[in-house]
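[job 0417] fold request received: Phosphotransferase
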Amino acid sequence: MKVKWLEHLLGDEWEISPAGGQTGEAYSAINQDKRLFLKRNSSPFLAVLSAEGIVPKLVWTRRLENGDVITAQHWVSSRELKPSDMNMESVAKLLKKIHHSKELLDMLTRLGKEPLDPKMILDDIQSQLSPELFQLELIQNALQYLKRELPNMHYREKVVCHCDLNHNNWLLSNEDELFLIDWDGAMIADPAIDIGMLLYWYIPKDEWKAWLDTYGLPLTDSLKQRMHWYVIAQTILSIHWYTQKNIEKESSSWLQYLKGLLSNS
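[job 0417] inference complete; emitting structure tokens
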């Protein structure tokens, strides 16, 4: 999207500049003491996320003649969470709020999202993998594990999962408000997808129970098994992604991580 389109939309009195991000579709707009965060074609349920206080407040939404939708949110002075911050009580509480939000679930359902089934994830992995990765013994062992454990992955309660709980997607405002941003990959799925990623990546294992106590869930054998399955699946997808991008250092790092996961299976 051209910045001049935004200038036409907002007026000459606004100073517009790129706001970073992987897509290059985010902008900052400043007019004296007013500042907005602008994005093209944000997640369609941004309004519900805003109403729930999960993302910074939505100010307005406008549709352009070409069909693009521009959203404007309050610019929040904030910082990204550090890995060590992910053990904060507010992280567990906000994730619980998200997973228990009927409004988010209703909206995502109305948008046509089908619940994500573990078999769908396994099928997706097998269809994506390159022949080179598919032939690796480590990958073969991981796929065999996913297939073997598939019957144990049934979990009735499906919730809205963010599916990318990297610490960079959590913002802590100067007023100590916590937000979770970048909802483009949200799915209706087993909450173990989100919980597993967060615990495995950021929380020491001997602190899992305390974190889950704050979240409000017991550390059962079923939850352990489901988290492990989803983390292995996500790790294979990360290896695939970095391999496709020819980022060998990250790909090798994730392969080593996968080796460690399988040794504990």
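[job 0417] notes: The longest strand covers residues 34-40. The chain has a mean pLDDT of 92.
[job 0417] exit 0
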